[in-house]
Amino acid sequence: MSWIEKGWYGYHRQTFFLLPLTIIFYLLSQTRRLLYRLGLLKRCTSSTPVVVVGNITVGGTGKTPFVLYLIECLKSQGYRPAIVSRGFGAKQDGAPFPRLITPESDVAYAGDEPKLLAMRSGCPVVIAPKRCEAVQFVQRNTQADIIVSDDGLQHYAMDRCIEIVLVDAKRKFGNGWLLPVGPLREPVSRLKSADLVIENHGFQREGEYRLQARSIYNLIEPQERLETSSETEVHLVSGIGNPGRFVDTVEGLNLKIASTTWFPDHHPFSEEDFRRFQDRDEDIILMTEKDAVKCADFARANWYVLPISAELSETLENRLLDIINQKCTAFN
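-> structure tokens emitted (332 positions)
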């Protein structure tokens, strides 16, 4: 954890030296949002309802598993969903934006999360730095009748029908300050205007939104499952927004963590990043699916993947579907 993250989550107060920047950030962000509300900055209108799944904090809150869960819920209700994303980390040169991402797309041009979403969702995934352009592409080139935006809560140029905000139940809002003194992109009061606020309880047994670890599989041979016991040692390698949750997951599976190697979120992995494991074929290297999509081309036989799925209570799922059906009916 970097010094700035330690400041965000209460370990020390060094981030308060950045207070002048927080004041500037607040004024600019609030002014921008006000201009959109007053119509002085124009939103790109959409003829298809857009559901935004986002957060008000920096770092992972479980958006990707939730988006995949939401897609399955929408399909079960007869919708034809598509996903739009900024495509963070995708190369800017080469293929023009917007880009339609498929399971076969080069991760360098897709970005890690869009590639994973395309592989697991079975629906169109379109990326563009300006999400409203991705929405327009979906409307022109697919049969989708509802669009899910992976992140984009603060992308106010994009019209939206529904806002779903995810909150990490463990870390909450950190020290409660806006960037860069704290982890907040917007004030906590922003949650009042969202259609649904969901707390992600990770792998705890209690909570309406939980995460479920599935069978660990081999990166080269996905059909091969890792047989584990309380004596199994794993080396964690990851570049995600909240690696602490990865640790909690592995410990919850009663595995021994031999070492951890963390990289920045969306890190573009290369063979060089695994040099320390070069002559240690007996070690089990374990990573998330988001990391694995960037390592498939140079993976070794001892590299494994821990897949995660979202799990909602029946009550929460019913609330979610009620909001979607009511809003989409009114939209049309």
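The mean pLDDT is 93.
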